[in-house]
Specification:
The chain is mainly alpha-helical and 230 residues long. The chain folds into 2 domains: 2-56, Homeodomain-like (Arc Repressor Mutant, subunit A), CATH 1.10.10; 79-163 and 200-229, Tetracycline Repressor, domain 2 (Orthogonal Bundle). It has helices spanning 2-14, 17-31, 38-45, 49-55, 59-73, 84-101, 103-111, 116-132, 136-163, 169-182, 190-195, 204-220, 226-229. Helix 6 packs antiparallel against helix 8, helix 8 (116-132) packs across helix 9 (136-163) and helix 9 packs antiparallel against helix 12.
C-alpha cells in the first residue's frame, strides 16, 4: 500500500497545468473538440479525472487555456516588425495561420470573444494602433474593427470545418457553391454570378490579407501625416 501511495503522489506531482493543456491541444488537433473530454484526457495522461479538475475547472476553461497558449506562441516575429503596419499584418496573419493549422481554434475564438486569447490579440493590435498615432478617441473603434474582422474569419473557418469533413473537400464544396451561384438570374445577381468562376480557386490567405490592408488604409487616413508613418 505504501508503494502505491508513493507512486500516486509522483503522478500527481508530475501533472501540471501546462502538461494538461498541451495534451488537450494534441487531442484537439488529432480529433477535434468533440473528442476532448476529461475522461479522454485522463486516459492520455494516465491519471484520474479528479486530478485534472484540481488544475482546470471545466472544459470551457481548458479550451480557453489551449487557445491562449497557441495565440501566445504566434507572436514570435511581431516584436521585430519595423513599422506598426507590418506588426499588425503579422499579428493578423499569425492568427490566420494558427486557425488554418488548427481549425478548432477558430470555433473557440469566435464562441468566446471575452477569453484571454482574444484580449491578448486586442492588446497587441492596440499597441500598434497607438504607435501609428491614431487619435485616442478613435482607438477603440479602430482596434475593435480589426478584432471583429479577425474573429469573423475565425467563425468562417469554424463553419468551414463543419461543412468539409476531408482536407480535399474545400475545392469541391466551393465548386458546388459556384455552380449554385451560376444558376442565379444574372439580371438579379450580376455581381455574384460574375464572381462565381473565381470562388473555387481563390486563396484564403491572400483574401484575408487584402481585408487587413483595406482596414489599414482606413486607419492611416485618420493619422496626421500618415504617409510619413509608413
Amino acid at each position: 500500500m505504501k508503494s502505491t501511495g508513493m507512486g500516486s503522489k509522483r503522478r500527481r506531482d508530475a501533472l501540471t497545468h501546462e502538461r494538461i493543456v498541451t495534451t488537450a491541444i494534441a487531442i484537439l488537433d488529432a480529433q477535434g473538440e468533440q473528442a476532448l473530454t476529461f475522461r479522454a484526457l485522463a486516459e492520455r495522461l494516465e491519471t484520474g479525472s479528479g486530478a485534472i479538475y484540481w488544475h482546470v475547472r471545466d472544459k470551457q476553461t481548458l479550451l480557453a487555456d489551449a487557445a491562449d497558449l497557441i495565440i501566445a506562441a504566434a507572436w514570435n516575429e511581431v516584436d521585430t516588425a519595423p513599422h506598426p503596419q507590418t506588426a499588425i499584418r503579422r499579428i493578423a496573419l499569425g492568427v490566420f495561420d494558427a486557425i488554418l493549422a488548427r481549425p478548432w481554434l477558430g470555433g473557440q475564438l469566435a464562441a468566446n470573444p471575452w477569453q484571454y486569447a482574444v484580449l491578448r490579440i486586442l492588446e497587441a493590435i492596440g499597441r500598434q494602433i497607438q504607435a501609428l498615432g491614431v487619435p485616442h478617441e478613435a482607438q477603440f473603434n479602430t482596434a475593435t474593427a480589426l478584432i471583429s474582422f479577425i474573429l469573423g474569419l475565425a467563425g468562417q473557418f469554424a463553419a468551414g470545418v463543419r461543412l468539409c469533413t476531408e482536407p480535399g473537400d474545400r475545392t469541391m464544396f466551393l465548386k458546388n457553391v459556384a455552380a449554385q451561384w451560376n444558376e442565379l438570374a444574372p439580371d438579379l445577381h450580376p455581381f455574384v454570378t460574375g464572381l462565381a468562376s473565381e470562388l473555387p480557386q481563390h486563396d484564403d490567405r491572400e483574401q484575408f490579407l487584402a481585408g487587413v490592408n483595406l482596414i489599414l488604409s482606413g486607419i492611416e487616413a485618420q493619422v496626421p501625416n500618415h504617409s510619413e508613418s509608413m
